[in-house]
Design goal:
Pfam families: AMP-binding (PF00501). With 524 residues, this protein is α/β, with parallel strands linked by helices. Helix content is 35%, strand content 21%. It has four domains: 3-70, no CATH class; 112-274, Rossmann fold, CATH 3.40.50; 306-385, Luciferase, domain 3 (Roll), CATH 2.30.38.10; 391-522, GMP Synthetase, Chain A, domain 3.
Amino acid sequence: MSIQSLLLQTEVTTVICGNKELKKLVNISGQLDTVTRVICMDDEFPSSANSRWTISSFADVKSVGRASPVDADLPLSADVAVIMYTSGSTGLPKGVMMTHGNVLATVSAVMTIVPGLGSKDVYLAYLPLAHILELAAENLIPAVGGIIGYGTPLTLTDTSNKIKRGTKGDATVLSPTVMAAVPAILDRVRDGVRKKVDAKGGLAKKLFDLAYSRRLSAINGSWFGAWGLEKFLWDFLVFKKVRAVLGGRIRFLLSGGAPLSADTQRFINICLGAPIGQGYGLTETCAGATFSEVDDTSIGRVGSPLPCSFVKLVDWPEGGYLISDSPMPRGEIVVGGPSVTLGYFKNEEKTKEVYKVDERGMRWFYTGDVGQFHADGCLEIIDRKKDIVKLQHGEYVSLGKVEAALSISPYVDNIMLHADPFHSYCVALVVASQHAVEDWASKQGVAFTDFAELCEKEETIKEVLSSLVQIGKKARLEKFEIPAKIKLLSTPWTPESGLVTAALKIKREAIRKAFSEDLAKLYT
């Protein structure tokens, strides 16, 4: 859905934007019937951009406010605060109506979970504010008197794509203490650390590998000597440098928005020496649902219900998930409580489909995700109804689960698994990691003129596929879940291309359409 469609559907009258966005608005101004006023955050802008609009700078707005102060018109808890559009990763975006009460329910719940949040905390904001995880975080930090610094995913670390040579990344400059992250960002941090370690080689690599294995043994409970004095030693010799990647002061990380692979969770946890709180929630639940405890070192789970949320499972017989399953109840995850939003803007049919009110007046949202509850009350996401495809011989494949497992390959920058009900095997589109693939090629003596050519070479495809097969077996994937054929892509998927969301989740339908010919060839 385009920005034009969103503005028309919501009948926006006032737009607040930057100079860059204003130029885009001017190009579609003829179709924006309801817009009458634009406030530009930049001081310099084309004031004659549109004769129908009143265009002001933010400085002008502040001056008017000082000259003509008015009493605040405070909202009620039930008033709509935000219409936030879903990512559209599985279809057209839908406008979720969030009340002030919804947002505050999640914020107040998280305040009881994250230890010691206060005025000394510094938060690095780099996710889009149109992402519910970021909206909740940016309401939470001012509530506790903390500091917010703003960055971008492409300037996050010293080695990020958009960092000029000789300059520092956002995290290095700000030295945050808390961060929210999506798995794609944490995967990049992990890959960046591994890249540096591999490049150094020799004693440095051996020290890192030894320190990592000892700490992993300690977490798994098989070597207690890696705590105490030895932990201090490894922190000083090895992990202090790794922690500098995110500024050196991180004490808590929250991961949400998509499943975090066990490998990345453990890697970040060990190398940064800070707990990762895996959270689960959706735009429709205002990010509220579950949150892991700070001292929970288990992997693959998303914690127990937040104080603002009720979470239950319901049977999904078609997928083979029942609450009577043993050893754990399984089923579709349903979330209730004060964080559950009003529904979809101007979409009553879809609202009635996934929002239900029970006989006690409790409002529930049917997530479409499949989970299981552990004996200690922690939830684990095991499938997604829309991501499950039945193959030719009746086997079910969970696309998201397989993608999360295979994404840890050093050759993979991004991946989309594709399953066709008329075939007995899966295929995959793989966006290749340029550094890793070119490094392999130089070591193997594979000649190439550019990266695109290298991705087309048969030996390159064979090497990447072999890596996926090995990782798939290690992750205990079934043979039919591991892609039998792959297409290597040299161009990254970006939000600008429309193939991933702003939070870097893949847009399955958009990718499927864009690469329909390549997918068809993989099945021939």
